[in-house]
Specification:
Elements (H helix, E strand, L loop, with lengths): L21 H25 L2 E13 L10 E4 L5 E3 L5 E12 L2 E4 L4 E2 L7 E8 L13 E4 L3 E6 L3 E9 L3 E2 L4 E10 L2 E11 L5 E7 L2 E7 L2 E2 L12 E4 L16 E3 L4 E3 L2 E2 L3 E11 L8 E6 L10 E3 L4 E6 L2 E9 L5 E9 L4 E2 L3 E2 L1 E2 L1 E10 L9 E4 L4 E4 L1 H5 E7 L9 E3 L10 E6 L2 E9 L3 E7 L2 E2 L5 E3 L7 E6 L3 E8 L16 E6 L8 E4 L5 E7 L2 E8 L22 E5 L4 E9 L3
Length: 587
């Protein structure tokens, strides 16, 4: 056997009775040592290149661009971390980096999807009190080994204030609720963000807020002072205050916060007498739970509350003078609801009662105008005991009705499962009275129209009233339009997914009078995109470097902010459209 730059090694045949001399033993040892050294050198020459590496950079204020000291910079798996110094600098060493055939590993942190040590790693995040946690933004910082990394943290916005009672005394222990304007399913809605309790000085503080629009209110606060309480006398309390001093949530002022801004929202409570309220409820199940909502002056919103006494079958509690709507909802297999208007005017309220009615069910009629016969999809549904094959619209459509109102029942309606073989009927069930957006996803073709009476449900809400039975009519077609194109320009912010999968995101936003449906398309690493299932209609097509999760495409007023972005494109049935899109800012 011969290795590179090593002498040949002779092998001796085994013979009985051979006697080894001291000279032969010494020679054998030298041969073995030479073999070990040569094999070691050969194995070493086959090892991939090993290079030590470090990560370094700065953490800065996203608004002022000033350095942030004592910020924690860390990896997504929490294995590596470093604090910034007084100038916002950080640095820490990674394990040796192994480079081989276009793939780079840094320890076991994360795979790099490009060649050599300059490949992009996307796993650095930072945080510090007083700034929004970088991980909350869902966008880890992208960097290249050996280059300077800059992580920009937006400063938190704050809402602070003080709650007082008459004579300016502090109100201790009052619950203050914060609501923010958020985008959900393309619509703008008020969602509760947080709740805090005032301290001994009546002060409250909401921290770590993003730039946005907010509303505040206080919850009811009963006066339990034993000094002023009269045995068996009237109860007193402090009704909700909708900042600054509105009668209900709809009339409350909005607080607009920019990044890092602080708003002051002081509120003053007014002491009022509270009177007993008793409302009997019929048609309730013995073991059923119930959710009770109270709307002041008929405007849906939070603030007031009553409870349900299951033993008495009665809604009970106390309310101050005013007009209210009391709504009761029972969830579960036998969902039901009911409501009543009451007026509290200087005395107790007994009734009228609430009669619960089962939630609404609306039949859905589907007309399929398909031209292609190349559709061989199969599906089934099981209730755990029986399995049913799905056919036609049951297989081709996914239909839901999602609540369009800020408050009230937030339960979505869905299609009733099949109850027997070949059950192709479609019924949208579990609909409480209210307004809904009809969400229809087509597995085949697209939704050409969806109407109920004279209402276009692709652009207007579905209004459900007790006893409603007008059917929903849906027409499906398969002459989809097609879109292909190329992205122009380089992204200015890190991608929202791994850089090997997408260079950007194309948002197809239907115009207000269009039958189109909102669609997001991912571009490939080379900037190409191609989609063959566009619903015909008029769209504003915009390309972003990051995924846009908050486009309010159901709100015409809010969509005016997008009028200068992208291109307006009209897709006719069966049309093929080619576009070149410039990447837009995601701000």
């Amino acid at each position: 056997m011969r290795t590179a730059d090593c002498p040949s090694i002779r092998s001796w045949p085994a013979k009985a009775g051979v006697r080894l001399t001291s000279e032969s033993v010494s020679g054998l040892v030298l041969v073995v040592l030479a073999l070990i050294l040569c094999n070691g050198a050969s194995a070493q020459s086959l090892q991939p290149e090993i290079r030590p590496s470090t990560v370094h950079g700065r953490v800065v204020n996203a608004v002022t661009h000033e350095p942030i000291s004592r910020a924690l910079v860390y990896s997504s798996d929490n294995r590596y971390a470093s604090l910034t110094d007084g100038e916002g600098h950080f640095e820490f060493a990674l394990p040796n980096t192994v480079s081989e055939t276009g793939i780079v590993f840094s320890g076991q942190l994360q795979r790099v999807w490009s060649t050599g040590a300059a490949g992009s790693l996307r796993w650095l995040m930072a945080r510090k009190p007083g700034f929004l946690d970088d991980s909350l933004n869902g966008t880890p910082t992208e960097f290249t080994l050996g280059s300077e990394v800059t992580i920009a943290l937006p400063p938190e916005a704050l809402i602070i204030g003080r709650v007082t009672i008459p004579a300016g005394d502090p109100a201790r222990g009052v619950d203050v609720q914060l609501f923010s304007r958020q985008v959900q399913d393309g619509g703008l809605r008020w969602m509760q963000t947080n709740s805090v309790r005032t301290n001994a000085s009546g002060e409250f503080r909401f921290a770590e807020l993003k730039a946005g629009t907010y509303k505040l209110l206080t919850r009811e606060w009963m006066d339990n002072d034993p000094i002023t309480a009269v045995p068996d006398g009237l109860s007193y309390g402090f009704p909700p205050v909708y900042y600054p001093a509105a009668a209900d949530f709809a009339l409350a002022s909005t607080v607009h916060l920019g990044t890092g801004q602080t708003a002051v929202a002081d509120m003053s409570l007014v002491r009022q007498p509270y009177y007993p309220v008793k409302i009997p409820v019929t048609n309730t199940e013995e073991n059923g739970g119930m959710n009770v909502s109270v709307w002041p002056q008929g405007q849906r919103g939070p603030g007031y509350s009553l409870g349900y006494n299951r033993g008495k079958g009665m809604i009970e509690g106390q309310l101050p003078n005013g007009k209210y709507v009391v709504e009761a909802n029972v969830y579960g297999p036998n969902a039901a609801s009911g409501s009543v208007n009451i007026a509290v005017a200087g005395g107790p309220v007994d009734g009228p009662g609430i009669v619960l009615a089962r939630t609404n069910s609306i039949p859905v009629n589907v007309k399929e105008e398909f031209t292609s016969t190349n559709w061989n999809a199969h599906g089934s549904w099981s209730d755990g005991k029986h399995t049913f094959d799905l056919h036609g619209p049951r297989l081709d459509l996914n239909i839901q009705a999602t609540p369009a109102e800020d408050f009230g029942s937030q339960i979505s309606g869905s299609i009733r499962p099949p109850t027997r073989a070949n059950d192709d009927s479609l019924v949208l069930e579990n609909l409480f009275p209210g307004r809904y957006w009809l969400r229809v996803q087509a597995q085949r073709g697209y939704i050409a129209s969806a109407t109920m009476g004279g209402t276009d449900l692709l652009r207007e809400p579905l209004v459900v009233v007790p006893g409603a039975s007008t059917p929903i009519d849906i027409t499906m077609r398969d002459d989809n339009a097609e879109l292909e194109g190329t992205l122009l320009g380089e992204p200015t912010t890190p991608h929202d997914t791994n850089p090997s999968t997408s260079l950007g995101f194309i948002e197809c936003i239907p115009l207000p009078d269009s039958a189109g449906q909102f669609l997001e398309i991912s571009a490939s690493p080379d900037g190409k995109f191609d989609y063959r299932m566009i619903t015909p209609g008029a769209y504003r097509v915009i390309a972003f470097a990051t995924r846009q999760r908050d486009i309010p495409y159901h709100d015409a007023e809010a969509m005016k902010l997008y009028e200068t972005k992208g291109q307006v494109v009209h897709f006719a049935p069966g049309q093929k459209v080619a576009l070149q899109l410039q990447l837009a800012s995601g701000d």
